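User: I need a structural model of ABC transporter substrate-binding protein from Actinomadura craniellae for a docking pre-check later this week. Nothing fancy, just the predicted structure tokens so I can convert them on my end. Input:
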Amino acid sequence: MGLSLSGLPRFALIAVMVGAAALSACSQPAEPVADGLVLADPYEDESLNPLMGFAEDGMSKIFDGLVTHDADRRLQPALATAVPEPSADGLTWTARLRPGVVFHDGSALGPEDVVATYRTLLDPAAASPISSSFKMLSGVRQTGPDTVEFRLRHPYAPFAHRLVLGVLPSEKLTGGPLESSPLNTRPIGTGPYRLAEWRRGERLVLAAHDRYWGTKPKLRRVTVAFVPDDNTRAQRMRRGDFDGTVLPPALAGTFSRQNGMTVYGHDSADYRGVMLPQKNPVTSDLAIRRALNLAVDRQGMIRALLAGRGQSAFTPVPPALAEFADPAATFKHDPEQARKILEDAGWRAGPGGTRSKDGRQARFTLMYPAEDSVRKALAGGFASDAGKVGVRVDLLGLGWDAIEPRMKKDALLMGGGTSLDPDLVAYGLLHSSQAEDGFNNPGSYRDATVDAALDRGRNSPDRAVRTEAYRTVQRRLIENPPWVFLVFLEHTYVMRGQWSGYRPVVDPHVHGTLTWGPWWNLPEWSRRG
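Assistant: Understood. Predicted structure tokens for ABC transporter substrate-binding protein:
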């Protein structure tokens, strides 16, 4: 998984199409619909409003941003006629709008819609959960019949990546809290598909937008069934209920010899790791954090728990960001050195094997979301390796509502990541200014060297300066680790039948059916044969 240092993807396309043995009657697929597609997803969005966080990394099927990304994650114009560039001082970005674009309700796109979208985002009364990602934006205004100007508080090099935000019609943005906006469940965008039906907890149906400005969708109707349980999804996939779904690697692998099925593996920037809170008396000890990073057998986890699909993670900067990733910023698997670090720091082994220091055991709780089978497995693997060097980890599966209040003092098996720009993944996770801001830096990590490098990386337009800044961050994370980063996952998908249009991409954390994943370019898909 991941990218080679040259930046070329090593996509693991495991296209195992097995010969003509007939399926049993109970697993025969439904008769295919030439211009339709049925997918299954484990997750159902609470809102389809981009200002509430839907498709924050782009690739929405319902909305367009001013820009989008291509298969190589390069920025391309969408609602803008060109990718916006900064002024000489880095504080002003201007976008010219594409003519002839209409929303799903038939109204024409204009600068007022872009202005209203971003002003609502910045409005404290709207309480957008993604507003913290736009703190650099001081204002937006219309400067001509087809132009919009963004003004920043300070230079911010990756600002164009933020412009994937879906644009909404201004007349539907009427003020007040976004939490109660009708757009959450009845979205109106300019994207290639419009929402035709949404039955909560059951399914969502998209229909082609006939007046779409870009590539007209070949698949006229897309149904997404919401099936949280992995085994149920796999069972129904075998039965023929779906054309495609996402599954954990080991479960996806069971389809590799099934007639008419194709298993795809996508490299991803989607990390999993153990967040170690600084306010916990055990995990606040640098010796504990360093020792745990050496104790963990990352490759062993990948082999045993992820069917060999994944890549070791040591920092949140993925191999996909090859220019910025520092290949030397790693930990070797060295349990003996881990034990020595603990001994030297005064953590002595007790009769049961668990170490203690000054009357306190080397013991802490590790939370994980109970419904996530992959995180549960990784948490178990981490606890096992920690125990081998004398650190006891108590596992606790909880719902997210129960997890969030405990993050200041209990460790958490977390996930996240993006393959678009290092600032988008590292700043919120590591900068001290973001400490305890929801899931931003929940462990209150503070390191002056990291802060200074993160600031340089986001403020400088110079690629060389940015590269060195993010490599400085990664090197410092090895010296003063806030987490035990474990793996970058390989996302695995199963498809039935033969399709045109598939192009692999490096997935971010958010993936599936409505954003990234194999269906990121859904308008280009069609059924073969």
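Before docking, keep this in mind: The CA atoms of residues 258 and 314 lie 36 Å apart.
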